[in-house]
Every structure is written in structure tokens, then in C-alpha cells.
Amino acid sequence: MEKYTKIKTILVAIDFTVKTDSATMLAVHMARRHKARIILFHNVMKFFIIDRTGRQMVGEDTISKQYNDAENSLELIKNSLQQSYNDIEFLTRIGTDTITNSINKIIEEDSVDIVITGTSGKQGLRELILGSSSYQILTGVNCSVLLMPEGSHKYKFEKILVPVRVLEKLNEKLEISKLIAEKNKGLISLFGISGDENPTAIRRAFIKMRESLKVSNTEHYTSFVVSNDKAVEISKASKDAEFDLIILTYQDEESWKSFFSENFFKQIINNTSVPLLFFKDSDIPGQDPEPAGYDITLPFPG
């Protein structure tokens, strides 16, 4: 369990939009507290569009230009950050596979502990069908993911909400929660929430985690509610008490009821305005939801 008591390498996904700014600043503040290094990452996907004649509509010249532009832009960001925060080691990486495959390669090569990505918290029709980049990262990478809402300035986590809603990896989740609370001099609010499934088991797990916090002398308080609307209850609790961070386990117990319904993750992302840390053990494989490219068949004359 030692790997959950240290954060040494943070990867922040850069897409050169406004939502990246808050995510990058959060990475900086976390790196200072944990004495960690930062990898600034951008992905240039080699996509293509082909009609029935077999013509490639997006060629290597375009990809090469995008790669060079991204390389130059990342270097400018790195140099600017290095001048302001010379106590942090900054690295740059560019991927050319799907975004999740690219990040997973870096996670393995550079021993990344946590990935930070910005999110607008808005799901349009395209994102609903293909998945937004933040949702793809959340479901596809092989380590914990911290989603930073666009425009958020919660860089220090003094009030941390830790829901107990599923039984998987609770001990590991508690360890990383205590680590973050320690580095931020923060308070943990243990929030048990049970629906119709496994209410007794959830309550027992909640009590066990509560006792563990007491033994560790971590500042905390606890509460327990019964509800099947877990995402709604967690969002409401975070707003009522103005929490700085919510720590969740990567376990999606809500299956899609229909093509257009929202699962637990998307409800949480769309209905909270604070950073969300989804704890994910490295032995839980990611699922790459991305297409490798766009293969669009156009009408062929004649």
C-alpha cells in the first residue's frame, strides 16, 4: 500500500483551451505540496478521412504541422512555468495515438501517479455519442484521474468529501484520502451513502473506515444517508458544505438505462463545480472508448 502514500509524478493534459489553465495551475499547487514533478502532455491523433476512391483527406503534412505547433506551444508553457516555479521539474510529452493509449504509455514509462485534466462540465450530442476528452481520459487511463472544472480556483483541498458508495478498493482509497488531507492540512468528511443494493455491507464498510480514521488521528467527521440517487446526494452534500475536493472510487455501478441516459460519472461531472478525484488502482484496466480515426464513406459518383 506504499504506492498510495506518495505522489511523485503528475501528468496534466493540455489542449490549449481555457479549461486547461485551471488544470495546469492545480497541477502546480499539488506538485509543490507533494514535491512532485509535472509532465505537460498534449495529444496529436493521427486521424484520417477516406472516401470511396481511397483518397486520404488528412495527410502526413497536416499531422506533422500539428505536431510541430504542439511541440512549440508546450515548450512555451513549460518555459513560462519554469520561470515562475523553479522548484518544480517540468517535462513535456506529445502523443500520437488515441489520447488514452498515449497517456497509458507515459504512465508506464514515467511512473505517473495521477492524471489531471480540465473539464467544462457540459455534454453536447457529440460528447454523448463519442465521449468528451475528459470522460475518455477518466474511463481509459490506468491510474487515478483528477477532473478540474473550467474556471475553478480550488487549488488547496482543506475540506475533502470522501463518499462510501461501493465496496471496491476502500482501503486504498482511504490511504490516498489521508495523504491528500495531510498535504493540505485538510479535514475529511466521510459520507456513507447506500441505496437498495448491499445496504448492510456499505454501512459496515463505512463504520470500518470511520474507525480507521479515528486510529490515524486524521481530522474528520462522518455522516450516512440512504438514497438511490447517489450522484444527486453527493453533489448536494458538496454544495451545501462547500467542499474543495470529492474523492470517488473508479467503479461505475450505474449501467446505461438507455442510449441517452446519464451514468453515475456523467451525472457527477455535470452537477458539481469542484475538483473530482477518481481513485483508480493500476490493476483496473482502462477502456479506450475512442475511435482510431474517422472512416467516413462518401457517395461515389457514377
TrEMBL record:
UspA domain: residues covered: 7-148
Cited InterPro entries: Universal_stress_UspA, UspA
Q: Which Pfam families match?
A: Usp (PF00582)
Taxonomically, which superkingdom?
A: Bacteria
| Family of this protein | Belongs to the universal stress protein A family.
Q: Which PANTHER family match?
A: STRESS RESPONSE PROTEIN NHAX, UNIVERSAL STRESS PROTEIN UP12
Q: What is this protein called?
A: Universal stress protein
Q: Which organism is it from?
A: Chryseobacterium cheonjiense
Which lineage ranks, top first, belong to the organism behind this chain? Bacteria, Pseudomonadati, Bacteroidota, Flavobacteriia, Flavobacteriales
